[in-house]
User: Which sequence fits this backbone?
């Protein structure tokens, strides 16, 4: 079920004027197109990984040890759980349940921070091994920049909510941040599979 | 279907045509019309720079030895900056300018879906242009606009890094602009305008925007790797350290071949508007033209490796040859549809129409040489020769630039409320047409005779043909100043016209020239067929528009309109 199908959605939208509804529709469409477009940068980097590994006799190249998938797997699971918290947080803000929103959003932010820390740890500790470490660092680093930027944005949303800026009549910033976080999670799942599983 | 003869839905309040000040165009504005003009003027500025670089290139090639440049590296920098400026700072932003100005008007909307984002996308362009040109002073890029490694990684100075950063900014601008177009077109059409009632220019912009959002991310990816190789010591394109030089070519062309359609598809939309309006005839094959834009957008993603035939695994050559030939089919559909539109039409040889006709002849030459190049044996034979240079200039100058000129003559009255001088326009057309032909057609011959591209010193056997090309190019360069003079002169002293001097049926003409800040007073009602010329209903609709927005001369509307005569609407 997508964010736009949440139960209180239709009721809330009925309260909007024609112009507000149009603006909300535009923002949702715009975010979706942005997600489709920008995920292709990640797809491009996966193709780069694929072409470079095809040029090697094995991957990782002989003599190079692949990083352990244990911590990244934990981080990935945490990231998936964060989606649930973000969705619950969004639902809470639409229902004007501020306390619940703070609880869920804090949990999501905590998981986001843990994820960023674990990936950064992996990024730092992988030894230089030529093209393998170049690709690994480039992909994880590129994702990390997105996780950091969007995580920071989620933090700003949290602060905004503390100031009482969001509620049933103004939930788009929260919905937009949630959509961007889903993007981060989806992009990581693609990278995780390529970097640690395949 | 009920006839629509009341273009403003019964709205009767009068709106005076506004007079925007120059200062409005020099600062941040979220009005799509001001942003559109900002795009147009900025890209014209870069057109002059790119053109000056072309003149220097042709000056250098007047003789077989080094004249202007003191070494090959300087010459490399000239054609690198020329290609980059012309593609990324002239044609693409110019098309975005037309799109920004026209799409909301054609849809009867007050603005784009995201006005702030629209302005932001534009304001990324000037710093990108400055960044690119700054490279000239710290060691200009030398690897060509395609920037293949290792030329762009090991053998090009720091300006190459600025080149990559500039293209990054332009790519982001392009994606943001495209998102805006798609959302605007999808969500902001007026009542009564389904997809099949949209003007073909809007269809073309939609197809272009789809390409931009799907292709430009690959350029972003490639540029990121290039920058990392140059500044962070990575080796993605360095085979001696596990990298792959062909990686760049694959990813770059996966963007850059569709980019050709980013540059030409909006022009295809413009020519549909111009031909139908100035031939006073319904467009032939509306749906075929609309869908062929989408087909080009789709098939455009399957042809990139034809740029790499000489480096490609042999078993992949035939599939890419086939897809490259297939893409000629939707383009051919358009050409025949435009010819069908002209057939039996009441053609008015306005400058806009002349450039549209000029486009048809020149673009077909570029299309035919494109099909020749899609053929693997021919491509391998003429690879990296002037035949290729000729081909893409017939497509991009004979195609895109001719259509930009056509669009400028057609929509200048809407943007300014004044006509461009038609006598100067016709002089501009004739000189451009002839000098363009003699600049670029002989390059086919030079290429077939074996003259390589991207060289400053060549075999003396090519001297005569190069001198013919260079002198024609100088004339072509001068023609640009006729246009620029006409633009400035007409802005001040051009004949004032009313809302709809061409008696066109699309919605951008259903408001004052120039339009007010919010485009329309009330909600405009689109005519049931944007190309339904030649019917009584169309004449009634256009007459109602003339009554609603009387021409400034106070004469009866039809007497004040120079082109075309109302009979035959």
Assistant:
């Amino acid at each position: 079920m997508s964010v736009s199908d949440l139960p209180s959605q239709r009721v809330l939208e009925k309260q909007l004027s024609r112009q507000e509804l149009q603006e909300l529709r535009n923002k949702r469409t715009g975010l979706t197109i942005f997600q489709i477009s920008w995920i292709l940068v990640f797809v491009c980097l996966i193709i780069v990984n694929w072409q470079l590994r095809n040029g090697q006799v094995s991957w990782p190249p002989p003599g190079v040890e692949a990083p352990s998938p244990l911590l990244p797997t934990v981080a990935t699971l945490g990231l998936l759980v964060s989606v649930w918290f973000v969705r619950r947080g969004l639902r809470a803000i639409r229902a004007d349940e501020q306390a619940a929103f703070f609880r869920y959003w804090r949990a999501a932010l905590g998981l986001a921070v843990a994820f960023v820390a674990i990936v950064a740890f992996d990024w730092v500790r992988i030894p230089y091994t030529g093209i393998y470490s170049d690709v690994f660092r480039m992909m994880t680093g590129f994702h990390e920049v997105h996780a950091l930027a969007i995580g920071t944005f989620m933090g700003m949303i949290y602060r905004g909510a503390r100031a009482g800026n969001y509620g049933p009549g103004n939930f788009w910033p929260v919905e937009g941040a949630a959509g961007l976080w889903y993007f981060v999670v989806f992009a990581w799942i693609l990278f995780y599979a390529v970097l640690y599983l395949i | 279907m009920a006839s629509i003869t009341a273009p403003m839905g019964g709205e009767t309040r009068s709106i005076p045509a506004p007079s925007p000040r120059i200062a409005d165009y020099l600062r941040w504005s979220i009005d799509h019309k001001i942003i559109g003009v900002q795009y147009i003027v900025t890209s014209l500025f870069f057109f002059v720079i790119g053109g000056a670089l072309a003149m220097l290139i042709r000056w250098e090639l007047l003789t077989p030895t080094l004249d202007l440049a003191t070494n090959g590296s300087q010459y490399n920098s000239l054609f690198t900056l020329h290609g980059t400026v012309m593609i990324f700072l002239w044609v693409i932003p110019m098309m975005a300018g037309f799109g920004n100005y026209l799409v909301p008007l054609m849809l009867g909307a007050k603005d784009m879906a995201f006005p702030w984002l629209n302005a932001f996308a534009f304001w990324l362009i000037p710093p990108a242009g400055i960044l690119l040109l700054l490279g000239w002073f710290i060691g200009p890029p030398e690897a060509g606009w395609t920037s293949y490694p290792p030329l762009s990684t090991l053998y090009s100075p720091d300006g190459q890094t600025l080149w990559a950063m500039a293209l990054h900014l332009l790519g982001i601008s392009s994606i943001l602009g495209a998102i805006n177009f798609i959302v605007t077109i999808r969500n902001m059409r007026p009542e009564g305008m389904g997809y099949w009632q949209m003007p073909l220019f809007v269809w073309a912009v939609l197809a272009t925007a789809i390409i931009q959002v799907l292709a430009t991310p690959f350029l972003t990816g490639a540029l990121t790797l290039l920058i990392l190789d140059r500044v962070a010591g990575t080796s993605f394109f360095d085979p001696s350290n596990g990298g792959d030089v062909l990686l760049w070519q694959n990813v770059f062309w996966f963007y850059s071949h569709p980019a050709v359609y980013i540059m030409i598809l909006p022009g295809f939309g413009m020519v549909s508007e111009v031909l139908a309006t100035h031939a006073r005839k319904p467009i032939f094959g509306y749906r075929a033209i609309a869908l062929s834009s989408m087909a080009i957008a789709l098939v455009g993603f399957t042809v990139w490796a034809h740029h790499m035939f000489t480096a490609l695994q042999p078993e992949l050559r035939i599939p890419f040859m086939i897809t490259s030939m297939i893409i000629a089919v939707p383009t051919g559909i358009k050409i025949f549809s435009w010819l069908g539109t002209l057939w039996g039409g009441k053609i008015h040889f306005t400058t806009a129409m002349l450039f549209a006709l000029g486009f048809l002849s020149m673009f077909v030459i570029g299309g035919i040489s494109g099909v020749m190049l899609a053929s693997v044996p021919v491509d391998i034979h003429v690879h990296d020769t002037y035949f290729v240079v000729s081909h893409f200039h017939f497509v991009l100058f004979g195609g895109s630039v001719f259509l930009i000129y056509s669009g400028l003559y057609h929509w200048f009255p809407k943007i300014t409320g004044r006509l461009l001088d038609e006598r100067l326009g016709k002089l501009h057309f004739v000189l451009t047409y002839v000098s363009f032909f003699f600049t670029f057609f002989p390059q086919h011959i030079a290429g077939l005779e074996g003259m390589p591209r991207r060289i400053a010193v060549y075999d003396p056997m090519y001297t005569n043909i190069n001198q013919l090309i260079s002198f024609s190019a100088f004339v072509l360069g001068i023609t640009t100043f006729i246009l620029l003079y006409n633009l400035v002169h007409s802005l001040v002293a051009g004949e004032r016209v009313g809302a709809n001097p061409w008696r066109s049926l699309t919605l951008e003409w259903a408001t004052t020239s120039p339009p007010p800040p919010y485009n329309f007073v009330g909600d405009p009602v689109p005519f049931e067929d944007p190309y339904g010329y030649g019917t009584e209903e169309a004449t009634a609709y256009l007459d109602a528009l003339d009554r609603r927005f009387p021409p400034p001369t106070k004469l009866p509307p039809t007497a004040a309109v120079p082109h075309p005569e109302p009979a035959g609407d």
